[in-house]
Structures are given as structure tokens and as C-alpha cells.
Amino acid sequence: MSDLRFKSVEEASSRKAVKVQIPEERVEKYYAKQVFNRQKMFEYLPKETFEVLVEAIDNKRPLPREVADSVAEGMKRWAIDCGARHYTHWFHPLTDGTAEKHDAFVEHDGKGGMVEKFSGKLLVQQEPDASSFPNGGIRNTFEARGYSAWDISSPAFIVDNTLCIPTIFISYTGESLDYKTPLLKALNSVDKAASRVARFFDPEVRHVNSYLGWEQEYFLVDEALYAARPDLVMTGRTLMGHDSAKNQQLEDHYFGAIPSRVEAFMLDLEIECHKLGIPAKTRHNEVAPNQFELAPIFEETNLANDHNLLLMSVMAEVARRHNFRVLLHEKPFAGINGSGKHNNWSLGTDKGVLLFAPGKTPRQNLQFVAFVANVMAAVHRHNALLKASIMNATNAHRLGANEAPPAIISMFLGSQLSSLLDEIENETSDENIELAGKEKMHLDVTQIPELLIDNTDRNRTSPFAFTGNRFEYRAVGSSANCASAMIALNACVADQLNMFADAVEARMEKGESMERAVFKEVKKLIKQSRAIQFDGNGYSDEWKEEAARRGLDTETSAPVMYDAYLRPESVEMFTRTGIFTRKEIEARNEVKWEMYSKKIQIESRVLGDLAINHILPAAIRYQNLLLDNVFKVSQLFKGESAETIAALDRAQIEDMARRMQAIKAGVDKMVQARHVANRMSDERSKAVAYHDNVAPLMENIRENIDALELMVDNEIWPLPKYRELLFIR
Ligand code: ADP
Ligand code: MG
Question: Has this prediction a pTM greater than 0.90?
């Protein structure tokens, strides 16, 4: 595509040594340049087509067939004007990545030549032969076809001269095989349920949108060093490596000055984001060395999630232009912070009211309290499910493992909101609850805005925190597709809001005022779900015990956590809201277990190979040097002095021998444990075996390798060390 013109500038201050390429134009000129947004639709589509398409998007309806050809034609003309040659349906299989199969626009012209064509049929629906995507058995029949269909709520965009059309991916029999389909269903369901409740307060509300603002944490590693670490290349994390003497203990990285080489990368990445319509806004150093964050301005959840997936692939490419590799793994390095992807989540009406933000009137504040109480109740009832939704083999290193918060979902509300909820809970004279100017209003909910406006009261250890006008779901992993968490959260909140609306309506039918009915139901929810609220230190050991006493889910094994999806209350919730059938849940769990086993299997193989082919040979070489030394000393010196001189080497030789034997024995044992696990045909049992019997053996092997790293001559050690990997110069 005709690209932006760049000028190469030496950044103003002399502190910066790196040249940064910045566009000559300001951002408003190139923002969304590669996106078929409304402005491009208006420009490239006939007026009637434009109107029909926009109407369908706004009303969350599928694209009417009769305008499909006309939309496809306009979209193709725009794409070709931008230099595109191919198109692809872009979808999100259950792999935590995206999938695309490119087709050129070319068709025979019937005269021996070619024309560039794109029909409505190809835009709207395709049948990728995708039998090798994970499907949990749904497509194990002879019927291997799947359908991908355009999601018109997310605009098409161009990456690398290919027109990408965001699509859902379902099986021939209609089951979802991706993340987008159930996400759209969950968003639809929360829209309906939340609108019901919001209409108690404002009958004009037509829709409620779910919003997502993700914060993407990542590590950067120099490309040359990355290439010398087979564990990073194959698994995304270091499977071995002794702590660097200096890492994050001086707390000098967080919000510190960004190294110029990194800043050049970030700027380049932001420009790419902006061209793709990703509203990147915030960037900063994170806690660990070489750890950074990028956050955009929040958007409607489905679009925000597409943008996050796109970002993850764009950042990998941009990093390579700067001789970096991006690590999105949740725990690339032991001993220092891991990476998450905080999901800032909120609901807002089409009238522009954010439902988790306190308002200006008592009525708005009752609405605010009602929505908060419903989220509390939903997170409480489904805390095990929510945890399962963010758990996988990689995030397991961040939650519930060493140096990490425990794998327990709790909610932080902050002192002001909690005391307000206390007041409601303890309010005995329900009779006095009236709003809108009537004198009897007991709780001065009008006070809320002032109280909450300056909500500096933050707790960084909470996995799910109220932050003033939204909730921040912090347990999500940095490499995850946010959809998994967003499906579970929006679904259980939708279900809860429906129950709440039913209860309120039932009271109103018996003659209670809306305000009183809402108040009473809110009070009930607060009472019921208090156990989920925890404002203390989530990292402490006492909390684990306390959480268990409160009946919260404290399971630490990822494969066992997935059982939460199949609990009756989860299956009922998902089927009631129309998001998953039982069959789909079962199939998706099969995929989760399979993925878990495969990831641990790969890690375990890589660790075994490195231990046997890299580490032991290096250790033997060094041990030989020591042996040689002991021998020579014994030849040159006699008696006690020979003993004294060789003592040190002897001790080290023995210490190394013990470590080497432990490594060899550990690898043998691990291979055996893998063989046992691999023979299991049931995916759940296999995953549990990998968790219980394979993964723990890796720890012991690593410990011995890391000890050897401290003994062996630096020149012989075959892998770049943490101190080299972690400090960009
Ligand atoms: P912090 O690190 O202090 O939590 P950041 O600025 O890094 O904050 O990120 C906050 C994210 O939350 C941004 O993506 C922002 O757009 C998003 N956000 C702000 N308000 C809302 C809201 N009402 N709903 C969803 N996301 C929001
Ligand atoms: Mg942040």
C-alpha cells in the first residue's frame, strides 16, 4: 500500500542514541488508514448499500444477502487502492492465536487472462478445510467442513497487503470452534440482561455495551540471544537459568526511563497500531527488567479483543525489525515478575451511562449499587469458573505457583465502596427506602460521587478489583485470548442480571416500588456474596486458609480447575444464556486438557534435550579440566601440600558429579513419567498426569542445572545467562 512518508530524526535530546523513524504526518492523518471503517464504507459503497450495512451493524444484525456483492465490490476496490492482492477470513481458533488462509483476488476472465474479483459469497462465508484445528472431538466425524462467517461488527483491515476479514468459525453442525462466536453470544446476552435492569432506571435504554481496555505486558529479548536459547524459541520461556545477581530488587525499572532502543521499537509499534485503528495510548516500563506494557483506549469488547489479537501478531513483527523478540509468555524468567494482561471491563448504556460509575442523582446511584452488587454475586457464584477461564499451562506459572499470587478469585472493592455496601447490608428499616426527593431516603447515596471520584485506594494484589468506574480483571495471562475471560465474565453477569430482573419484577408485580424492590434485592445479593470480597494482601499465606474457610475455590491444578466448566451450575448458566451447549463445553474442555498436556510435553522434551545435549556435556568438559588439574597437582606436589591444593577441585568435582547424576536420573524419570502419561487415552487423566507427575520433575532438574551454572567456567556454559538476557543496552 502507498505508505507513509517517514523522516529519520535524531531524537531531540542527546541522551538518545538511537534513530527513530517517525511519520511526517500527524496521527489524525494516518489513524485507521488500513481499516475499512465507516468513512471508507461511505467513500467506496453505493449510498443504499452503505445505509443497509450501517443499519445492520448498529442493530447487531447479520449482513443482508442482497447487499453482500455490493459491499464486497466496494471493499475490494478499497483494498486494491491500498495495494492489497489477497484476502483472508481471519478467525480465532482454540489455539490462543489467529488463523488465516490467503486467497488472491484473481479469477479467470474467460479470455485467457485474469481479473481481480471478490464476490459477496466469498466475503460473507467460506468453508475452510480446517480439520486440523483443535475441536475437542466435535469434528472427528467424516464431516470435516467448518464455516467461517464475517462478523460485521468488526471492520476489515489490511495487514501486509492482505485484506483480513474478521470471522467466526463454526462446525458444519453449528458448534463454535473458536473464541469469537461464544464471545459475541455472551456480549449479546449481557446486552439483553443489563438492558432489562438499566431500563428500571431509564426506560429509553435500548442497548448495553460491554467495554474492554486491556493492558498488554511483555518482555523484550535481543534477537541474537533469543536464538541461542532453544527453550525460549520452542516454549516461550526459559526452562533453566540461575537468578541474575541484579534483577528487579532495586525497583529501578518500573516507570523508569525507557531504553532508547526500546523506545524506537515502541514508537514504531504505536504507528503500526494507529494505522490499524488500534487506539494505543499508554506505554511504560514494567516491574521486571526488560518488561514493558502497552495499553490502548478501551473499546467495545469484541473489537477490543480483535485489536488485542492483532496487536500480539503485529508486535512480534515490529520487534523483529528492531532485532528484538517479544515474549508474551506469562513467566519467561523465574524469580522475577511475570506478565499479565489486565482486563479493564465495564458496561455502559447506549445513552452513554457507565453502569459501574456512581452518578449524580440518588436514582443513578441506586443503579450503580445494583450493578456492582450483581457483579459481586456473579463473581462469587462462579469464582471457580472464572478462574478456569484464565488458566492454562503458561498462566499457571503466574497464578498459584512460586513467587506469584495464589490461584484464588476474590474481589477488591476499596474502603469507600465497602462501607457503602456495609451500610446497605445493615440497613434494617427497609420501609424507609424511597428515592427521588422523598424525605425518607436513609442512605445518602448522593454522597457517593465525592467519595469515589478520587479512588486512589488501589490494591495491586487483587485478581479482580473495582477501580472507580470499572472492574479490572487482573488474573488474565499475557499470552491469552481475552475472549476466554470475557465470555465467562459477561456470561455469568448476564445470567445474574436476569435473575435479578426477574426478582425485582416479581416484587413490583406485588405492588412494591421499583426503588424498594431493587434495594431489597441488592441487600440480599450483598449478604449472599460477601465472601468474595477481600481487600487484604492476596499474596499472603493466611489468605489461602481464609479463602478456603469462606468456601472459595482454592484448587491449584490447572487441569482440575477446568472441571468447573462442567459443574451443573456452569452448564446451566451457559445453556440458559445460550452461549454454549453442553456438547460444546465438553469439547472445549477436551481441547483445554489436550493443550495443557502438549505444552508440558514440549517443555519436558526441550528440558530433557538441553540437559542431556547441552548442559551435561559442558559440565563434563569443565569437570575434566578440574580432574586434569587434580592429576597434574598430584604429579607436581607431594603429600599434604598436594592434598591442600587439590582439595578445592576435589570438592567441586564431587559436587558437580552429584548434580550431574541428579540431572541424568531426573531426565530418565521424567521420560518414564511421560511414557505413562502418553499411554492414557482420556484427555483429562493425561493432563492430570502431566500436571502431577511430569511438571514437578522439571523443577528438580532445573534446580540442579542452575547450580551447575554457578560452578562451570563461564566460557564453557552453552546458554546465554539471565544477566545477559535481561538487560538491554
Ligand atoms: P492502570 O495501569 O493504572 O490500571 P492504564 O492506563 O495502564 O491503567 O490502563 C487502564 C485501561 O483501562 C486503559 O485501557 C483504559 O482505556 C481502560 N479503561 C478506562 N476506563 C474504562 C472503562 N470504563 N471500561 C473499560 N476500560 C476502561
Ligand atoms: Mg497499566
Answer: yes
